[in-house]
Amino acid sequence: MSTATTPVGTEAMHALFAPGSIALVGATDKSGWSVSTFDNLRASGFSGPVHLVNPRTEVVHGQCAHRSLTEIGEPVDMAYVMVPTTAVLSVLREGAGLGIRSYVVLTAGFGETGPEGLRLEEEILDFARGHGLTVLGPNGNGYINATAGTTPYGLPIPPPLIGGPVGVVLQSGALASSLLGFAQARNVGLSLLTSMGNETMVSVTDVIDYLVDDPATKVIALFVESVRRPREFARVARRAARAGKPIVALKIGSSSLASHTAQAHTGALVGDDAVVDAAFRKLGVVRVRSLEDLIITAGLLAQTGPVRGRRIGVVTPSGGACEVIADRAEQEGLTLPPFAPGTVARLKEILPDFATVQNPLDVTGYVVVDRTLLSRALEVVADDPGVDAVILLSDLPRLPPADLALTLEHFTATARRIREARRPVIVTSNVLTDITEVGRQVQREAGFPYVAGGIEHAMTAIGAAVRWSRTLRESPRPESVAGVGAPVVRAETTGVWAEHRAARLLADNGVPVVPSALAVTEDEAVAAAADLGYPVVLKAVADGLGHKSDIGGVRLGLDGPEAVREAHREVCADLHGRGLSGVATLVQPERHGGVELLVGVVRDPAWGLTMAVGLGGVWVEVLRDSALRLLPADPEEIRAALGELRGARLLEGARGTEPADLDRVAEVVARIGRLAEELGPGLESLEVNPLLVRGSEVEALDALVTWN
Amino acid sequence: MSTATTPVGTEAMHALFAPGSIALVGATDKSGWSVSTFDNLRASGFSGPVHLVNPRTEVVHGQCAHRSLTEIGEPVDMAYVMVPTTAVLSVLREGAGLGIRSYVVLTAGFGETGPEGLRLEEEILDFARGHGLTVLGPNGNGYINATAGTTPYGLPIPPPLIGGPVGVVLQSGALASSLLGFAQARNVGLSLLTSMGNETMVSVTDVIDYLVDDPATKVIALFVESVRRPREFARVARRAARAGKPIVALKIGSSSLASHTAQAHTGALVGDDAVVDAAFRKLGVVRVRSLEDLIITAGLLAQTGPVRGRRIGVVTPSGGACEVIADRAEQEGLTLPPFAPGTVARLKEILPDFATVQNPLDVTGYVVVDRTLLSRALEVVADDPGVDAVILLSDLPRLPPADLALTLEHFTATARRIREARRPVIVTSNVLTDITEVGRQVQREAGFPYVAGGIEHAMTAIGAAVRWSRTLRESPRPESVAGVGAPVVRAETTGVWAEHRAARLLADNGVPVVPSALAVTEDEAVAAAADLGYPVVLKAVADGLGHKSDIGGVRLGLDGPEAVREAHREVCADLHGRGLSGVATLVQPERHGGVELLVGVVRDPAWGLTMAVGLGGVWVEVLRDSALRLLPADPEEIRAALGELRGARLLEGARGTEPADLDRVAEVVARIGRLAEELGPGLESLEVNPLLVRGSEVEALDALVTWN
Predict the structure, then answer these.
(1) Residue in B113, B175, B181 nearest the CB of A318
(2) Is residue A528's pLDDT more than 60?
(3) Cβ–Cβ < 8 Å for A627, A642
(4) ipTM of the predicted structure?
C-alpha cells in the first residue's frame, strides 16, 4: 500500500468535507454501496444537488442519470467514485478537466491486493498530485459530516444521525458502522466520521489536522491499525494538545517488530506495542483498549474537558454500586477521600437515619419514596472542598414512563443541579445498555448531560480523563534537542563500541563513569590496579567484542598484584586464541552494594530514539521489568518511568539497600538520553548496563554503543 | 447482621419460589414498592390469587383489601411483607397461625441499621425457626421466578420479562434492577432472580442449592459482596460443578483482612481478595469483574456448555475486527491456529480473490454483495480439525429492516449452518449495544443462537468458558484430608515453634529438611560442624524467638572450628543478654546456589487453610510474587501455582540456575500442605522459608510454626 508523505492542505480538506454538490460516479441500483450513499445523502438533508453518473442506465435510484461527469453540465464539487478499479483513473482525468477538486474513492482492488493494484494506486496518486486533486481512499467508504449533514458514505447510516463534538477517524471500513451504531446508542454526537481506506493521499493525520481546526469538534477518536506517518502524527497530536482537544485512540495489532538491536539487551524490551504506549503518552494521546471505551471515553472528555484532579466524590442510590465503583476507582488510580465534616453534617440532614454517610455515598433505596434525594445529596457533595469531581450514578429511562412530564421535570431539576454544582459532575449509568429514544428525548428536553455507559466503562473513561488532564497541566516538553548539542566523540562512529570506548564517550559528555584504565601488558594492569585501589575488576577488551561476559571475559574480586597479573594473562590469551585483535584488559575498582539499573536507548524505526530504563539482573532478564520513554525525556519523565517499575521499591530502600537519590538518578539518565540525541542519526543504540546507584552516587559501570 | 447457619430445606425453597397464592401485607397505593409488586404479579401472569392486606384502607391498587391475613379467609401460600419494621413479627405470628409457610420481607430497618434492628431480626429468625417458616429477606426486594411467571418483586420489571436458563442471585437490591435490564438487553433469559436482603434465614447458598436442582437453570450468576458461609458455599459450588452447571460470580469489595499471622511472612501475601480468587478457582467458580461480564459470560455458558479446548477459529466480515479479536484472544490465553490446508483450499473457492485466507478470517466487505458469504465460510471453518470452537462475528438488526422476511430467511439459514456445524459456534457482535425488539424477534423466529455482546466482553466470556471447561475436565479434587493422617508431633502444640522444633516436625513427617544439630555448648557446636562438614551456618535458638535474622542471630560461612566457637559464644551471649531462656545454636551445613522458595500455610478465617507459594528474596519482599491455593492442594495444583509466578522462569533455569525438577518440588510442597492439614485446628500457620531447590534436590532450610 503506498502512503502519501505530504500533508494535504487545510483548504483542500475543507473542500473535501464541505462540498456544495456531489456526483456519484458508477451509481447503480445493483450496488448496495450506491444505494446506501444515495439514501444517506437524501436522509441527512444534504442540500446541494446529487448527480448520478452511469454510462449505461438512464434512471438510477429513481433519478435521471448522466452518462458521464461531463454530461452533468454544471459545476460539481466532489465526485464519489464507485467505478471498477481500472476505470478510476479515467474518472479523475475527466473530473480534473471539469474542475472537480475533491474525490472519495470507494472502489477497492488497489494496493491491498498486490503489486498490480499498487501500481494503479500510485498512478492515481501521481495524477491527483499533478492536478491538485484531493483523494480520500481508495478502498474506503467515505465520510459522514454530521455537522453539515453531508454524508457521502457507502454503508447504511441507521437513524438518527446525531451531530455533536466527537470526530471519528478509522482505518477500518466495517468497524465504522459498529462505532457509528455504538455512538448513537450512547447518544454521543459526531462532528465527522471518516473511513480512511488506503490513505493514498488523505491520511489519518490530515483528518486530525482538519478536526483540530474544526470548531464543532471537541474530541478526536481514532481507530488505527498502524500509525503510518509517526512524525506527522506527532505533529498533529501536539497541535491537538495545544488546542485542548483530547485524542482518544484504539490502536490494535500487537505483532512485534523484529528486534533491531541484537547487540543490546534493550532490543528485547522494546516491543512495537510498548513503543506505541510510550509515544502516545508523550503526545498526550489517551489510549483505550476496546471499541466501547473509545466512544465512551471520547464522549466523557467532550463533556468534562480537563478534570482538576483524581479525588472523586461518589453519589449513588445503591450500596452494591458503591462497592463496584470503589473497586474500579482503585484500579484506575482514583481516590475517594472521606467527606469534609461540613459535608457529612449537611448530608445527615438530608438522608434517612439509617443511611451511612460516607464516600462513596449510598443515599439508599428511599429514592423510591423521594426522587430528589439523589440530586440534593449531589448538591452537597459537589460543595465538598476535598473532591475534584463528582460521580452521579443515574439511569435514564429506557421505556416511555407512565408520566413523561413528571420524568422530564425530575431530570430537568437534576440537570440544573448538575449545571450549578461547584465541581464537575460525571453522570454514569449502572450497566452498559442503550440510551433509547425516550432517553435521548430526556437528555434533549431536560438538558441532561452526557451519561457514561455503565460503571465498568465509565470508570475506565474517568481514569483516562484524569490522566489526560494531568498530562495537559504538565509543562510542554521540548520536541527534540537533536542537532543542538555538539558531543565530544573521539573515534570513528562505526560498528560496535565496547566498554572502553563507550565509557570514554559517556565520561567525555558528562555522564559519571566508574574510573578505569586500559592495560595492554600485565605490568600496566598491575600499575592501574594499584592506582585505582584493590579489589579490582578486570574486563576483556578486543575489537568488535560485544558481550564479554558470555566468553568469561570479566574477572571479579582481584585483591592483589598476583591475581591481577594472572587474570590479565588468562584473559588476553583467551582473546588471542579466538583470533581477536586490539586485545587488552580494562581495570576498574570493584563496587559493592547499591542497585543496578539498565539504561538503554534504541532507534525505533517508526518513533525514533526510545529509552528503556529498568533494574538489572532478574528484573530485566526474568521479569522484563522496564519502562519506556520516547526521547527527549526530561528528568521529571525519567522519575515517572522509574516509578512505574515493579522493582521501584528497591530504589526506595526496600531490602535494606540505601535509598536512591532519585533526582540524581533521573538527572544522569536524562543526560544519557540527551547524549543519545546529540549523537545524531548515526547512533543505532546506546546501553549503560549497569548504572550503579548507591544513594546519591550514580555511575556507569559498563556501556555499549552501536553505530549504523 | 445475623446470619443463618442451617441450610433451608429443598421443599421449603420450592414452596418459597412456587406459591399458588400470595398476600401482599402492608399493600398501599402510597408505596412504590407495593405498586410495583402488585403490577409485577399482574403483568407476569401469576395465575393464583393476589390478596391485599391493609388494616386501614378498603381499596388498594383498585382491588378490595383485607384488614388482616386472617380476614382473607382462604389458604395463602406466601406473604409478601411491607409493614413497618416493628410490625413484621406480628405478621409472621398471624401467618404462622394460619398455616402460611413462606415469607418475603421487604421491610428494612433490621440488622443493617444497628443493634436494635439486629435484635428485631434475631427475633424474627427465632420465631421463623421455631414455627417452621421460610423467610427471604428482610431488606430485600423479593424474587422474580420467570420460569413460573411468579414475580413478588418490589421494583419495576421493565417488559418483556424473558424466561431462560440463567439463575441470578444478588446481595444487592438496586443492582438487581440493573442486571435485569441488562439481561433483557442481551436477550438472556432468566429462570429466577433473587434479591437476598439480609439473608437472615434464606441465604445465597440456599438459593444456589435450589438452582442446582432447578431444571430450568443451566447457569448460576452471582453478585456477592461477601461469602457469608464459605463452607456451605463450597458445598453448593461442588454440587453445581457435579451437575455441570457453571457458577459465574461477581465478587466485590476489596477491603483487606487484618493480617492474622504476624509471625509469618505469608500473612501479608494472603489478601482477602486473593483468597477469594483461590477459593473460586478451587471450586470451579468463574470469577468476572463487571456487571456486564456477569450476564454476558453466564449467557454464553448457557449456550455453549463446556468448550473442548482453547483453539478458536474466527470468521468475520472485517479486517479491523479480526485484529481486535486477535489482540483479545492473546490476553485471554486463547489460540487462533492456522487453518488446515483443506480448509484453506475450500475457503479459496468461496471467497473473492482479494481476500486473505487466514485465521482470523475476514471474508471482506463483499458480504454486502453476497450475504451468504459469512455463513458459508463458517461452515468450512467449523470443519477444520484444528479448532475447538468457532467465533462468528455477526450483528443482529437493530432497526426493523426494509424486508423483514428476507432478513429472517437470511438469519434462519445462518442459524441452520450454526446448528449443523461440526464445532460449537459462538456468535458475537462487534460492540455492546442492546438487542432490540427486532433483534429478539429474529433470534426467536429464526432460531438464531445467543449473541455475546461486543468483541470486548465476548472474548472475556470465551476465555472464562474455556478455563471453566478445563477445570471441569480435571479429575475431582479431594475435599479435605484433615483428620485423616496422624502426624508425628513431639512437643506441646502452643506458641511459636522456631526453627529447630519446626524442622523436626517437618522431618518427622516426610518433608526433606537440611541436616542440623542443636548445640548448647561450644564443644557441641564444633562437634556438630565437624560431623556435618564445613562450611556451616549457625543460628540462634531460644524459647519464643521468631525472626532470628532480625537480631543478627544467623552466622554464615563458618569455615573452621575457631569460627564456629566464636560465633556460638557471641550468639549465646547476645541471647542471654536479651534475657531469653532455652538458649542454644543450631548448626547446619551451608548451601549454595539453587532457587529459594517460600511455602506458607495460614488459616484464613473464612476459607480455612490457604497455601502461598513464591520465590524468596526480592520476589516476595518487593514484588509480593506469590500464588495461592486453598488446601488440600495436590501436586498438579501446586505445579500450576508455581507456573503462575512472575519468577517462574527462574525455576526453569533462567539466569543459569539449574532447572528445577518441578515434579519433585510439587511433591514436597504438597507434602507440606498435607502436613498442615493433618496438624488439625490447633495450627495457626506453618512457613518454610526458604525451601531450597537445586535440580531435583529439595530441602527446607528454615521453618516456623505457630499454634493458636
Answers:
(1) B175
(2) yes
(3) yes
(4) 0.91
